[in-house]
Design goal:
This protein is 48% helix and 0% strand. By secondary structure, the chain is mainly alpha-helical.
């Protein structure tokens, strides 16, 4: 169940690198399945689009959450030329907000304990 939520959940934040790799893996899986199914029936490939778009929408929304933006920013995609460019820059180039934001904890701080102290002794 946790694996499904990793790909289809809309809550939380997603770092740039993880967004890129998850989007790449899902695109390769979509292309592979499309080519395999297309050999038998072209109309049967239509069944692949809803799950693929759900995964890509989930990834994009969580990437925007990392920048403390709502998923509604994806509506910029309907603006010709400038909209897709803006969304591409936001998803691929803009760094997430440091620290916690309304959408969750900073994914860069996962596994780090802020109470740990490293002590270096002089040689």
């Amino acid at each position: 169940m946790r694996t499904i939520l990793t790909w289809l959940g809309f809550r939380g934040r997603l770092r740039r690198a993880r967004f890129f790799w998850m989007a790449l893996v899902s695109a390769i899986a979509f292309a592979t399945l499309y080519l395999a199914i297309d050999r038998f029936s072209h109309s049967a490939t239509l069944v692949l689009y809803p799950p693929a778009f759900a995964v890509w929408l989930s990834l994009a929304v969580r990437r925007l959450h990392d920048q403390s933006r709502r998923g509604w920013w994806l509506l910029w995609l309907v603006v010709p030329l400038a909209g897709p460019l803006l969304v591409a820059v936001l998803l691929l180039l803009v760094r997430g907000t440091p620290g916690d934001n309304p959408f969750g904890e900073d994914p860069r701080s996962e596994g780090q304990d802020y109470l740990s102290v490293s002590i270096h002794e002089a040689a």
